[in-house]
Amino acid sequence: MTRLDWIVLRRVAARVGITFAVFFGIAALAVSLDLGRFGELSRIGGPLLGISGIVTSALRTSVSVLPIVVLIGTIIGVLDLQARREMTIIKSSGASIWQVARAPLYAAIVLGLFVGLIGQTVVLDADRYIDEGQSHGGGIWLEQKGKDGDFVLEADRARKFGTELDGVTVFVTGGARDRIVATSAHLVDGAWVLSEAMRYRPDAAPEPIATLRLATETSAGDMRVKLTSARDLTLPELIDAVGAQIADPDLRAGALTYLYGLLILPAFLGASVLIGFAFTSGYRRTNKYGGAVLYGIVLGFVVYVVTELATRSGVAGVLDPAFAAFGPAFVAIVIGLTVLLYKEDGRA
């Protein structure tokens, strides 16, 4: 890397870091308002565990808006170069805008790779570890369909991503109104296997059954996604869930959308850098940058809204998951490159 690369990278990276700290602080303040969770964690492990829960939850929120953080941080960093007239000096030396934006662009791509492949998984695992000791009221209710009829399955708790259930009660909804109580249920290929079951029928004595098999269309991938939001799954879990052949098309669309979103994150962060340079790297006669900062915030908000709309449409199955994830990133890259090309050619 050249000295020019280091100067620009340090300036932009510092402003991105400050912007991330601001977003993290706002997220932490919002999470801290959940006094119930903080009190429960503090009761289990003391105030330190409660604070750790706030930190991990705030990190999850901050990571989810990382493209906006990078965009606003880049805009502030470039405007700082403009205010110090460093951008004017750099351009007068013959350096093109591509040379100026090169180092921050590469750094954003590396950051996206780290967050998408490692960081998101570490943060989610830490947040889950902190929440393990919390008591969760209420049971698990699942509507099931199978070749032997429909039924509703209720369980006290789930293990192994929902493939093993404890404290199971089955309510048969088709035909006979039977109720089956079992100590546990294990999901195998195409069926729930109930252990130590007791069948209750109207006007009949309870019937003990050592092992009972109930056919179902639910797969292991379905259970992995049903018991938690696809947004809360780590990258390896999303890959496993998709590879487990999710039967429910809505659940599969959600898992694929978030999986593609993590894979496209490096390109999205790179697009944020391009847009930041595209709208702030031009020559300015004055040091009044209030309008540019406001414009950058509004632009970041628009990018966030479009991304969220596309993601929700992909999760709902309205848009193809690949299009919902790659579409906003592609549009952002095209916008950034187009404006930069016009400016480099002296047309804007």
What does this structure look like?
This protein is an alpha+beta fold and 348 residues long. The protein has two domains: 3-133 and 252-344, no CATH class; 146-216, no CATH class. The protein is built from twelve helices and six strands. A hairpin with a 2-residue loop joins strand 4 (179-188) and strand 5 (191-200). Helix 9 (249-263) runs parallel beside helix 12.
Offer a quick outline of the entry.
Helix content is 62%, strand content 15%.
Q: pLDDT under 50 segments (min length 5)?
A: 133-138
Let me know the largest β-sheet: 6 strands, antiparallel
Strand order, main sheet: write it out.
1-2-3-4-5-6
Sketch the topology as an H/E string, one letter per element.
HHHHHHEEEEEEHHHHHH
Computed Rg: 26 Å
Distance between the termini: 29 Å
Helix content: 55-70%
Keywords:
348 residues; alpha+beta; 2 domains; six-stranded antiparallel sheet; 12 helices; elongated
Mind sketching the topology for me?
Blueprint: H1 3-32, H2 35-45, H3 47-64, H4 66-83, H5 86-92, H6 97-131, E1 140-144, E2 151-159, E3 164-172, E4 179-188, E5 191-200, E6 207-215, H7 220-226, H8 235-243, H9 249-263, H10 265-278, H11 290-316, H12 321-344
Antiparallel strand pairs: 1-2, 2-3, 3-4, 4-5, 5-6
Helix pairs in contact: 1-3, 1-4, 1-6, 2-3, 3-6, 4-10, 4-11, 6-10, 7-8, 8-9, 9-11, 9-12, 10-12, 11-12
